[in-house]
From TrEMBL:
It comes from the Eukaryota. InterPro entries: DUF5600, G_DYNAMIN_dom, P-loop_NTPase. Gene3D superfamilies: 1.10.268.20, P-loop containing nucleotide triphosphate hydrolases (3.40.50.300). It is found in: Endosome membrane. Pfam families: DUF5600 (PF18150). This is Dynamin-type G domain-containing protein. It is a peripheral membrane protein. Signal peptide: none annotated. Residues 1-153 form the Dynamin-type G domain.
């Protein structure tokens, strides 16, 4: 199997840059010869530039080969994903001349493993303590700017206080200098108060859920060795994705 990744579609002022060759002509040549055409959209970047529109128009006549994929769906929450999906369908409706609504596959197609889950959970917990403490120290009326500068300057003392009161390891705190730089751009009065119920959920995840997941890993590795079959990888589960052979054809088209 040969996978051809086209150069990035240009947008904005870059569309006026001469590529030095007939880009749409090249797409037409490949479209006639390939078995599958994947139009890949990022969940956080849905604009269809003029060049992208011309590229899609160059693929007309090969509708049976085209699959539309909304990638990086894990970067937005469910409500945002619905808005993104609607915006994509609206944009495609202006470009695709078809009587039926185009089917869009939603997923996150990358091979990067989810790592450092426990570190991220601890960091989120510490972050909640820091933000809520800063919000609590802010005055309700006057002197907000001066108090903000004072709190940022004394962030190290706040770290020590949270560490002592909550029994948190120093390694779980974000970098002091980087945190001070980021806080300078935010309005402390808009920070949220601490929500104990959410912290309890994080603690329960760290104490129970993560431990349960970690105990499952050796069992899965043992099963893979016994079967002698390679499991996982970039092409695992193709039957559930638009990249599989025969996907979107026949009874599977609906």
């Amino acid at each position: 199997m040969t996978i051809i990744d086209t150069p990035g579609i240009l947008s904005g002022e870059k569309q006026r840059v001469d590529r030095g060759y007939d880009f749409t002509g090249v797409l037409e040549w490949f479209a006639e010869r390939v078995d599958r055409i994947i139009l890949l959209f990022d969940a956080h970047k849905l604009d269809i530039s003029d060049e992208f529109r011309r590229s899609i128009e160059a693929l007309r006549g090969h509708d049976d080969k085209i699959r539309i994929v909304l990638n990086k769906a894990d970067m937005v929450d469910h409500q945002q994903l619905m808005r993104v999906y609607g915006a994509l369908m609206w944009s495609l409706g202006k470009v695709l001349i078809t009587p039926e609504v185009a089917r869009v596959y939603i997923g996150s197609f990358w091979d990067q493993p989810l790592r450092f889950d426990m570190n991220r959970a601890r960091l989120a917990k510490v972050h909640a303590y820091i933000i809520s403490s800063l919000r609590k120290e802010m005055p309700s009326m006057f002197g907000k700017d001066s108090k903000k500068k004072e709190l940022i300057k004394g962030l190290n003392a706040l770290y020590a206080e949270i560490q002592r009161e909550q029994q948190i390891s120093p390694g779980d705190f974000p970098d002091l200098r980087e945190m001070q730089e980021k806080l300078a751009a935010h309005d402390f009065t808009k920070f949220h108060a601490l929500k104990p119920r959410l912290l309890e959920t994080v603690d329960r995840m760290l104490a129970e859920d993560i431990a349960q997941l970690m105990s499952m890993i050796p069992h899965e590795q043992t099963e893979q060795k016994e079967d002698g079959v390679v499991i996982g990888g970039a092409f695992d589960g193709l039957e559930q994705s638009p990249f599989g052979y025969g996907r979107g054809e026949g009874v599977d088209a609906g």
